[in-house]
């Protein structure tokens, strides 16, 4: 990929990471201005689901609400788009064809077969498919909402992410067959990906069981205190596991991709903000909730 293109992608992810870090800091500071309209507008933009339901908003702000159950749209887009990019890259790799002109204008697909890139694309697709199935078959969504801006951003996020995966392995050029490129970084990355995915699935199942009976039928849409599994360590293990999943993809890139490290930085601040909002809700809502429990990363934050 050209230096200009690489710089542009790095800038995009740096800006996104910086925006969410700033949002996390502003949230901590703005608590003293809870009655101001600017504060409410800011909270309306960063909150979704259960953390948004008790926010005292003007009626005109509710016009921009999108049901949180529409989360599955994000993963449906990701499965289709990243599946298409994966199939395209596999075809280019094994059929030795040139990429379409519209794609070469965005990224430069490496001419030599890249095991790291193909693995990351495959794992991204598997992750998206699992999350889509969980949204449709496991999770029990309440009447919570997200902002229209969050919805539009979520739809575009996985499109940008897929293109980023295609052009992140610009440091280590693949030589020889795909199998000959396999090393300990790939094995460690896939291993961490599987472990983090299982942790996230277990956490989402525990959250769903808070609203279902033994038969699996939905009994309530009320929010209850999460217990069991890694919820005994942090308030949001599903967010922590999301971070681990992206770190696992960094391992697959042999930890050499600055671009993907910037993606991880964005995920860190994005998930930290969401976890902090959930953590504050649990502490304020449940008197018995452990005050010393961390929000996001065990024993750290």
TrEMBL record:
It catalyses: a di-trans,poly-cis-dolichal + NADP(+) = a di-trans,poly-cis-polyprenal + NADPH + H(+); androst-4-ene-3,17-dione + NADPH + H(+) = 5alpha-androstan-3,17-dione + NADP(+); 17beta-hydroxy-5alpha-androstan-3-one + NADP(+) = testosterone + NADPH + H(+); a 3-oxo-5alpha-steroid + NADP(+) = a 3-oxo-Delta(4)-steroid + NADPH + H(+). Keywords: Endoplasmic reticulum, Lipid metabolism, Membrane, NADP, Oxidoreductase, Transmembrane, Transmembrane helix. GO terms for biological process: dolichol-linked oligosaccharide biosynthetic process; polyprenol catabolic process. GO terms for cellular component: endoplasmic reticulum membrane. Pathway: Protein modification; protein glycosylation. The keyword Transmembrane helix applies. It comes from Scophthalmus maximus (Turbot). Plays a key role in early steps of protein N-linked glycosylation by being involved in the conversion of polyprenol into dolichol. Acts as a polyprenal reductase that mediates the reduction of polyprenal into dolichal in a NADP-dependent mechanism. Dolichols are required for the synthesis of dolichol-linked monosaccharides and the oligosaccharide precursor used for N-glycosylation. Also able to convert testosterone (T) into 5-alpha-dihydrotestosterone (DHT). The chain crosses the membrane at residues 12-30, 70-90, 102-127, 148-166, 178-199, 243-269. One of its GO terms (molecular function) is polyprenal reductase activity. This is Polyprenal reductase. The keyword GTP-binding does not apply. It is found in: Endoplasmic reticulum membrane. Pfam families: Steroid_dh. It is an enzyme of class 1 (oxidoreductase). Its main location: endoplasmic reticulum. Belongs to the steroid 5-alpha reductase family. Polyprenal reductase subfamily. It is a multi-pass membrane protein.
